[in-house]
Task: inverse folding
């Protein structure tokens, strides 16, 4: 049986004893034990910090068991080497038993070991007694240390001063091409070498393999092209590379600044169909540079001139869903907007409206960019505060960067003849930022886009140390003198008419009316695993309030596929009690109640086939009986429906209107239209479905995803995997499904075969449909690995072949 990280403790893996020591430097950690040495390469980020904290904890605990003097080379403390230099990309196991060590580290280090051509020269943060600034963020530190942090922030001007650093920001949609020319005219266009490079690519790879499996050789090709084109007058270290399908962000820093970079994290979020597919979305890197927290985002938003609302939706989803984990797992993750400086680059895809091609080209010919810019969708959306509130974009004095004939400077001569547009943009948010240049680079002709480029506080260590010590002395005097207390804005919250996948939020305000700062936290009630029900969240769930200060907490109710079934059946209600605890103070009780409107989303196929009327026309008692009925005819004397009427409405709408719709089931719809479609299905009003074809298609996928029991029930899952290559056996399994499940499966398969007859128009093929639908119809009761995904796709492909019954 394989050993996992849950089976062993760190002490069982690494021989930690009194003569054990760890030295970290250059992103290498050295573990010393007696005469043996193990050298491990660790990546940036919180995973590494958690691992080294655990090493420190285990070593400290073991060293406390004895009083004798250690014979090892490091006496009585954990030494950290803070020099920065080059490092290789190899793991070098020295001890015989290190298989378990390396397996454990891979849990922390997936992104680093997947690329051998990585030479990250920047050290990760080290949590040791000598690193006071970082140690305050560790989970074991509580109220007192938060008091210190609060006072440090209030006195920041005493120990910080501004210093100029230059960021080179570049964005390039490469249209799936490989590098065919040097990137030097783009990346080395500045006279002086920049301090940092943040380079974003979009459409790195347009192949189906990249889309389905997020794997592409073009990552290495473009990374190599970038590294060869960086400014020749400086040496740079690669800090981070992050990619989601074709969206890639590369972050370089001058080697002399490497030691001042810490807390590096990378995250991705897809905004494609169902909010998951990574053909559109964003990748981001956050890091701490000296005393500033900086976040760089590279995004690729929805295409097509008329889809500006979907671009707005993509932006909002990226801002809300892209979150960086913190070292303390009890702390809420950091969102993009929680940083001092935000740099946003990418193919934002906003177009020029209300002008035809000839008018746009005429203004470009006159270089009247000011007039042309007044028709720019992004400018208008920012002016309306629909997106990028608080962001700044420099003056645009270059011609649109899209769309050109590949390999030339000629505007699009294809049949579609796209209107030129400034799709590729660079914006920022934060203080003390001055743009030195903002330009496109016409010399590069690889893609149908042109690349775009655009040309922070530093800690004074001695002043910081003095301020830190003075704050500690003051807190020592204040501690234990007073009991903290707060005033709550209200203690009862009512959420009316909660709907499936619709956010409902109310604000709880806390005012510190006591004599001392206080720390609050929502705590678990007896015999409950978390502080609240799964449909409820409090943000933030814990925090710190200075004396006389206040904080707003968002109480948010959101019902998703995991919580909807119990609420639909009436087994669960919108009711909960939150316990707000003050450290060294009392507890406050907050009541949350509401009513949930039942939905076909999260209801079972069996239940929906029993309901001939819209679900919200049924009484709670009837719904409870339907859910608990042992067979299909137990409640309704009438013959049950062959398939749920809601499913029929969506498929019938698509059959009549969308067989030839381009990119159907690949392009997401609008969230606002999904809400209208959901309400129509649940209430029967209006008679026909509202919204675009793409919104109806996504609503269908969300319906299948929300089924408590998938179309192919969980009990058949393993059997389907075992016979996936045998078409006749696959058909036999489907014939054994419960009648309503079998009807739904055959109905959907027949509809998808009709779609494939129109593949020349809708651009679908068997692989695309199998990838999208197999994971919904044939879901795993546990987490699905890649091999299982491919087997489910092979299983479902048999039913997409023309002529299948």
Result:
């Amino acid at each position: 049986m394989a050993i996992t990280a849950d089976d062993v403790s760190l002490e069982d893996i690494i021989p930690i004893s009194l003569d054990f020591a760890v030295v970290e430097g250059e992103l290498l950690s050295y573990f010393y034990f007696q005469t043996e040495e193990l050298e491990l390469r660790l990546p940036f980020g919180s995973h590494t910090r958690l691992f080294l904290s655990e090493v420190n904890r285990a070593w400290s605990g073991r060293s406390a068991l004895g009083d004798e003097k250690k014979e090892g080379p490091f006496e009585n403390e954990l030494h950290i080497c803070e020099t920065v230099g080059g490092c290789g990309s190899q793991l070098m196991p020295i001890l015989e038993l290190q298989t378990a060590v390396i397996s454990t580290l891979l849990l922390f280090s997936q992104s680093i070991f997947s690329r051998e051509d990585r030479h990250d020269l920047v050290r990760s943060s080290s949590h040791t007694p000598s690193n006071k600034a970082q140690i305050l963020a560790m989970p074991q530190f509580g109220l007192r240390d938060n008091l210190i942090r609060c006072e440090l922030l209030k006195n920041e001007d005493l120990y910080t001063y501004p210093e100029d650093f230059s960021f080179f920001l570049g964005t390039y949609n490469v249209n799936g091409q490989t590098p065919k020319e040097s990137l030097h005219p783009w990346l080395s266009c500045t006279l002086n070498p920049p301090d940092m490079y943040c380079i974003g690519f979009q459409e790195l790879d347009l192949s189906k393999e990249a889309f389905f499996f997020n794997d592409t050789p073009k990552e290495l090709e473009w990374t190599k092209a970038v590294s060869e084109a960086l400014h020749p007058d400086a040496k740079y270290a690669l800090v981070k590379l992050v990619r989601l399908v074709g969206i890639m962000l590369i972050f370089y820093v001058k080697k002399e600044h490497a030691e001042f970079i810490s807390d590096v994290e990378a995250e991705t979020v897809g905004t494609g169909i169902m909010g998951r597919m990574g053909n559109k979305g964003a990748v981001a890197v956050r890091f701490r540079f000296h005393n500033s927290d900086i976040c760089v985002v590279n995004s690729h938003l929805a295409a097509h001139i008329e889809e500006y609302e979907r671009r707005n939706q993509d932006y909002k989803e990226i801002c809300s869903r892209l979150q960086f984990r913190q070292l303390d797992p009890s702390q809420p993750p950091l969102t993009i907007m929680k940083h001092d400086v935000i740099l946003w680059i990418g193919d934002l895809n906003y177009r020029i409206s209300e002008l035809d091609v000839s008018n746009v080209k005429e203004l470009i010919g006159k270089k009247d960019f000011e007039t042309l810019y007044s028709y720019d969708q992004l400018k208008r959306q920012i002016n309306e505060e629909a997106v990028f509130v608080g962001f700044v974009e420099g003056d645009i004095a270059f011609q649109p960067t899209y769309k050109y004939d590949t390999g030339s400077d000629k505007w699009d001569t294809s049949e579609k003849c796209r209107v030129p547009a400034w799709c590729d943009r660079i914006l920022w948010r934060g203080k003390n930022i001055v743009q030195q240049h903002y330009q496109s680079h016409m010399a590069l002709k690889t893609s149908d886009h042109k690349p775009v480029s655009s040309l922070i506080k530093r800690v004074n260590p001695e002043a910081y140390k003095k301020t830190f010590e003075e704050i500690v002395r003051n807190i020592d005097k204040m501690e234990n003198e007073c009991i903290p207390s707060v005033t709550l804005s209200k203690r009862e919250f009512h959420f009316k008419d909660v709907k499936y996948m619709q956010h409902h939020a109310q604000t709880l305000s806390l005012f510190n009316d006591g004599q001392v700062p206080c720390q609050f936290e929502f705590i678990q009630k007896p015999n409950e695993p978390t502080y609240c029900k799964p449909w409820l969240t409090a943000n933030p769930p814990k925090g710190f309030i200075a004396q006389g200060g206040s904080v707003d907490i968002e109480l948010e109710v959101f019902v998703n596929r995991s919580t909807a079934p119990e609420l639909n059946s009436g087994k669960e209600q919108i009711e909960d009690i939150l316990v707000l605890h003050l450290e060294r103070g009392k507890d406050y009780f907050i009541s949350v109640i509401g009513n949930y409107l039942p939905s076909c989303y999260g209801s079972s196929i069996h239940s929906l086939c029993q309901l001939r009327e819209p679900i919200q026309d049924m009484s709670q008692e009837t719904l409870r009986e339907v859910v608990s009925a042992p067979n299909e005819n137990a409640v309704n004397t009438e013959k049950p429906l062959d398939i749920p009427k809601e499913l029929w409405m969506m498929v019938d709408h698509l059959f009549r209107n969308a067989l030839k719709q381009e990119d159907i089931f690949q392009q997401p719809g609008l969230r606002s239209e999904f809400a209208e479609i959901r309400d129509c299905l649940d209430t029967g009003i209006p008679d026909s479905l509202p919204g675009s074809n793409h919104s109806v298609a996504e609503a269908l996928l969300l319906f299948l995803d929300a089924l408590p029991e998938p179309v192919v029930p969980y009990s058949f899952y393993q059997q389907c995997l075992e016979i996936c290559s045998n078409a006749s056996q696959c058909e036999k399994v489907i014939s054994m499904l419960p009648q309503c499940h079998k009807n739904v499966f055959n109905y959907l398969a027949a509809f998808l075969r009709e779609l494939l007859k129109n593949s020349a128009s809708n651009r679908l093929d068997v692989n695309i449909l199998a990838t999208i639908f197999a994971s919904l119809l044939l879901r795993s009761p546990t987490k699905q690995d890649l091999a299982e995904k491919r087997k489910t796709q092979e299983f479902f492909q048999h039913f997409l072949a023309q002529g299948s019954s």
Residues 46-63 form the longest helix (18 residues). The longest strand covers residues 261-270.
